[in-house]
Structures are given as structure tokens and as C-alpha cells.
Amino acid sequence: MLIVVKLGGRILERGISPELVLDVTKVLPENQIVLVHGGGVEVTEIASKLGKKQEFVVSPGGFRSRYTDKETIDIYTMVMAGKINKQIVLALQSQGIHSIGLSGVDGSLVQAKRKKKLIAIDERGRKIVIDGGYTGTIDNVNAQLLWLLIRNDYVPVIAPVAMGNEFEPLNVDGDRTAANIAGVLNADKLILLTNVQGLMLNGKLVPKLGVSEIREALSKIGHGMITKAYAAIEALESGVNEVIIASGLENQSLSSALEHKCCTVISRE
Ligand code: ADP
Ligand code: MG
Predict the structure, then answer these.
(1) Is the pTM above the cut of 0.85?
(2) pLDDT of 102-147, one tens digit each?
(3) Which atom of ligand 1 lies nearest, measured to the CA of 40?
């Protein structure tokens, strides 16, 4: 099976855990894996150490995103494609997994269209239009490059930095990056590992649901999880068989998710 796994920034606060690396080694012989990671919390921390306070905006659809100006995209790229990406690659290689860390810029792996404007909601609940900064919407993934690596038994580790039309780095969401990659590779599964067991609705974990059910639930889902809901819909619509949202903090997070233990499984119907 081909599995795309997204490691949420919330489970990478102390780097990738040894348990998770071990679980990857367990799952790998039978499967092909592509890893995508987040790391927003660490970007914010390091930016503040550099004296660059981060600002966030919320869209009318409930997405919370980083306001990414020129200084911020430089810090974002340094932390995502540098520190976090290399820590994961090193941890995997320490357990004998051949892995290659890439950002979307490398080999034009993830191309995006720069957002000219963003619609945000201000403190009083009014819609305002702001400059899009260095954020983008993914419009192309270089699947050939990924196949080259996967077929040669490398585990690609991908940072959510895309390449814009004018050859500039762009901040793209990690969940959406993983969904796009899973879609173009026609992956069997997309697994989103985060710091909660899965999607909660009305105070309860939802073990299973279909695309139309998650669409109907969108207005009840909060920041963080809403991006995963949209990523799931996007992946399933582009041909991925199943999306699993699970905790990445358990002992055998990945193998349990593959067995549908303690998580949310979203299917095409
Ligand atoms: P990651 O770094 O894994 O992307 P996020 O913080 O972006 O993590 O997203 C996960 C968070 O989404 C959870 O920690 C939780 O606080 C939040 N969340 C909002 N709404 C829900 C929901 N309906 N079910 C589960 N988690 C939710
Ligand atoms: Mg997130």
C-alpha cells in the first residue's frame, strides 16, 4: 500500500518521537510511505526569539492562518525546511530508514499560486480584505520526482513550503499539502497524525464517517481540525481510498491507525 502520513506540528514539539520512528520501521516493509510534516508552533516560537511577532488571521470559513510577510516566509522556510525537516530525516536514518528531506521548492515538488488577497474576520466579526502575503494555493505536484524516490525505497519527508509562479517560497498548509500529494500519487491512505484521537462532534469521537457527512459537519468543527476536514474531502475527491485522523502520541500510532483503532476513518461513502 502507498500511504501518505502527515505529522502534525503539535506532535513534533520535541521532534519526531522514537516510538513513532519505530512504528514507521514496523509498517515500512509492507508499504510505501511519504511523510509530510507541519511545525507552525515552532515557527512561531523561533520567530518570537528573532523578535518577529507572528500574527494570525481567521477566514470566514474558519481557517486560522499565519499572516506571512517577507520576513515571516524567510523564518518559516528556515524552520520548516531546515530545522524540523532535518530532525525528522536524521531520526529516521538513525533507525536505518533511507530518507530524503525536501521542501516543495526542491525539484519543483509542490507548486502553488500566490494568494493576492485574503478575506479575514476582524475582532468585531466584520469581513476585511488583506494582502495575501507569501501564502499560496497548491496547483501542481511533481509526482514523477516522488515516484523516483519511492521506487528506490526512499521515504520522502516533505516540508510545507511551496514554489510560487515567480520562484518565491510560499507558506502552504501541511494538511492540504499532504492531501494534494496523496491525490496525485493516488495513495491508498492519507493518515493525519495529530494531538487528539480524531474528529470530535458533540463531545464524542466519531469513529467513522463518509464525505457527505463530514461536509455537513463542517460548521461544527473548530480551528486546526477544520483544515484536516477539508484536506480529507480534497484527498477523497481526488481518488484516495481512505483518510484517517488519529493521535500521533500513542505507542503505535501509525500501525493502530492502519488497523482503525481509536481514530476517525473517513471514506468516500
Ligand atoms: P496539527 O499540528 O496536528 O495540525 P492542530 O492544532 O492544527 O494540530 O489541529 C488539531 C486540533 O484541532 C486539536 O488539538 C483540537 O484542539 C482542534 N479541534 C478543533 N475542533 C475539533 C474537533 N471537532 N475535533 C477534534 N479536534 C478539534
Ligand atoms: Mg494544523
Answers:
(1) yes
(2) 999 999 999 999 999 999 998 898 999 999 999 999 999 999 999 9
(3) 2
Instruction: Pick the residue whose CA is nearest to atom 4 on ligand 1.
Output: 8
pLDDT per residue as tens digits for the range 156-195: 999 999 999 999 999 999 999 999 999 999 999 999 999 9
Q: Ligand 1, closest atom to CA 193? A: 3
The C-alpha cell at 101 is 528531506
CB neighbours of 259 closer than 8 A, spacing ≥ 6?
A: none
Q: Which helix (H) or strand (E) holds 220?
A: none
Q: What is the DSSP string of 123-134?
A: TTS-EEEEE--S
Going by alpha carbons, the residue nearest to atom 9 of ligand 1 is: 224
For ligand 1, residues with CB inside 6 Å are: 8-10, 38, 194-196, 199-200, 221-225
Burial class of residue 49 in the structure, from the number of CB atoms within 10 Å of its CB (0-12 exposed, 13-18 middle, 19+ buried): exposed
Residue with CA closest to ligand 1 atom 5: 224
H helices within 62-210, ranges in order? 70-77, 85-94, 143-151, 174-185
Under a CB-based contact definition with an 8 Å cutoff, are residues 118 and 93 in contact? no
Mean pLDDT of the chain: 96
